[in-house]
Amino acid sequence: MGWLWGSGNAANDKLDASLRDFLDKENPTGPKPSLPSKPVEKSTETQTTEPEPQKPIVPPESQFQDGRYAHLWKNYVPQHQLEDRSKSEQDRLRDAVDSFNDRKADVGRAAMENCAFEYMAQFDCFKSPNWTQASTMCRAETRTFNRCYDIQSKFLKALGYMTMEYRSPEDSEAIQMHADRLYQQMLEQEKLIEKAKEEGKPIPKFEGILSKQNVARAMADKITGAAPSAPGQVITEEEEAAVWKRIKPESRKLYEKKIAELPPEEREIERKAILGELKAEGSMVKSVEQTFIEERINRMKRKEAGQATIGDMIKSLWGWD
């Protein structure tokens, strides 16, 4: 192998003369190319951090909220929006009223689910009562269930369960869970207060159960960071002022009288529940008014184009224009 690698001694190199001539011809001449210099490391003090690229927006229906497959969701339209496009004005009016009534019924259903244990205790008491329960006609069990159902319903209303805006079933379930969590927290606070009274200790002071800070602590998920009017949050002061502004003075006096008749610890809960229901009712009324406006505009367009229907003519005679 000495012919290939060489021994370091020119006398011992036994290359063929033709091969040596070829290597001499192909051997590059001139200065040797210089290697690229080592890049200078930038100091962390002078280096500016580039802003991270904004993630593509994807709808909540996507399982990849980090922006993957955003191009596939570019022209996506939710199913409820597609259905709304094909509805007439009458259908939209009916849907607005039916949706409000359905939300009121949903509050009762969700409260019933949250009070399932209290209901079963009442049911078992009536089915097979002991001597004490029979003598009191299950008064304690009935009172416990009725209070649970009433307070849970108010919590659900205060947390926006009756909101008319579209929300996913997951959001509804989260609100229902938060209402039950707040109710259990309220019961725990009441136990601590009763224990302090029995032991003669100072009564502990707690933050309002529906205060903004307490609700935020109880809702450690995505709803907490949502918009102020989103479901799962108590109504803000600005929204409260807007709600009372729409209510007639005489009606507001009746609401305030109803709140004042309650015990002090229940007044705030009742007030937030009333505001939640009034806010949902205002959204329903606004939706109905918007539908009437759109229907009137479409009716005027048909009249100008000479395509007025019999219904348009009847409404014109009734002075709906």
From TrEMBL:
Source taxon at top rank: Eukaryota
Comp. bias (Basic and acidic residues): 17-27
UniProt region (Disordered), positions on chain: 17-63
UniProt protein name: Autophagy-related protein 6
Organism annotation: Periconia macrospinosa
